[in-house]
Amino acid sequence: MDEGRAQRRGVSPRLWLAGGWLLLALLAAIFAPLVAPQDPLAQDLMLERLPPFWIDGAEPGYWLGTDSLGRDLLSRLIFGGRIAFIVAFAAAITACLVGSTLGLIAGYFGGWTDRIISRVVDVWMAFPPVLFAILLVAVLGTGLSSVILAIAIIDWTRFCRVIRAETMGQSRMDYVENARIAGYGRIGIMLREVLPNVVPSIVALLSLEMGIAVIVEAILSFVNLSISTDDPTWGGIIAEGRLSIHQAWWVLVFPLITLILTVLSFSQFGEALKTRFDPVLR
Amino acid sequence: MLLQRFLIRLLTMLITLFGVAVVVFVVIRVAPGDPIAMMLPPGATDADIARLRALYGLDKTIVQQFFIWLSGVVRGDFGTSISLRQDVLGLVFNRLPATLELAIVALVMAVTIGGTTAVIGARERGTAVEAGIDIASGAALSIPDFLWGLVLILLFGVLVPIFDISGRVSPQLDLPFVTQFYLFESLLRLRLDLTWDLLKHMLMPAVALALPLAAIISQLLKQSLKEVLDLDYVVLARVKGFSETQVILREALKNAALPTLTLVGVQFTFLIGGTVIVERLFSYEGLGNMAIDAVINRDLPLIQGIVLVFALLFVLINLTVDMMYALLNPRLRRG
Questions:
Q1: Residue A118's domain spans which residues?
Q2: Which of A45, A79, B68, B128 has its CA 20 to 30 A from that of A143?
Q3: DSSP string, B285-299
Q4: Is the pTM of this model over 0.80?
């Protein structure tokens, strides 16, 4: 009990910090054309490899410096956030819908249904995820919808495994038995009684999965397989930064910090939400 | 009992591998790009194209192609790489040792770092030391290997350039090796100069792969150690006058390690999956790096071979861990 209360006290600052960063990054991405100080695609060889603002040689208006083509790094990060958040939301929600539904069905009905779904999950788990993602995007063709689809195709198993196990646990509890005695149908019990109790886990996984989707998108654009090369992406900027690392470290450092903050925030946010939604801990 | 368990697991393993083969095969055949198109010289005639398609078996139906390929795989014939024009199995075996060495070094690191911090955290439970370990492992776990790799490149490749961040071994060195297991062979030959050079190249990618796993081991093992430390037999050992560290190492560890072992198995497959991008990041000449090239070149036979070898590795690790668990768990051993 004490531990639960201590955990809850720890929730607030974590939730605020993580949520604050995500909100800031999301708003910047949505209003990118208004917020970005420069055109993210404008090249100017006179302005190539400008350092960030606190170093001698920086130009006003180019706060985080420029890359080897003279493009403004901050503006590229802000516009790159658009792709990152679209992929994060779309891929995670798709994976969540498919995986949670199958997990709920497998866990609640058991028997052959469960055996078939679990066998498919086993097959999926035998693929190296990054290689699978690269392969799928190569097959589906580069582009935003391919990236989203590829991530959803790979990561639905995360939801399926956890929700299946949780549903199995819930189905054995007294309240489910009571509902059955009270004459509710199986699907009714599954949706009205079991589902609300696995929602905290789904929410936490969803937030975690958004962070993972951001990383996978970055990896795909790092190997140059994500969307068209014109639009700035965080992974694309990292790939440029990796190449010019000895001439312009900032092109790698700032997208890296952005990615780390975003991934940490998504996982912390998920944890905090789980504690908050959990009927037992609450 | 044990044998029965083993046979059942072996059967599921084969079904899983068959499933993987089907999925890869189907996924690749839906690919819109024609792999043959890239191999053709300008001005090739339709007859040339047909001949080449027949050579790679691409003129048959997809089901026929699958079973031709599968019967080859069972005999150890994975086909010929389209982009490199070499035997797929030979190419894979040439690169696999580099990846295995990297994964094993990373695993050893993860177990060492995770185990040590777990023991220290359990000994110092309730203090600032434990809180510090919790924060560090939380961060190590939330940040994926790809990002750790980039952080390490910045720190030890650029800021303090003490390690190599590219390749497997310095190219100017004369290598006397007959196998592709450079690291193990250099140790056996007592060529410690080469061992050092290999390790200098391997250290950064291995740490990037090891950190998330080390964090998981640390958290889980510390938790189980803390549970065991309140049990009667541990309290008895303490009363007998053993120091807390001795109590943990001699009494608590062997009983607390079992749940961690199961998890390490699954997580080790994730670590191997991570080698794909980490090898790319550090230009390390392993299987994963070759896999990405194969996908970019649309080299169907090579992709199939590599994915299948990865899948085989994954199921073998799971099988090994399952058997080790059954052997070590007294409840299963006697049952």
A1: 62-277
A2: A45
A3: -SHHHHHHHHHHTT-
A4: yes
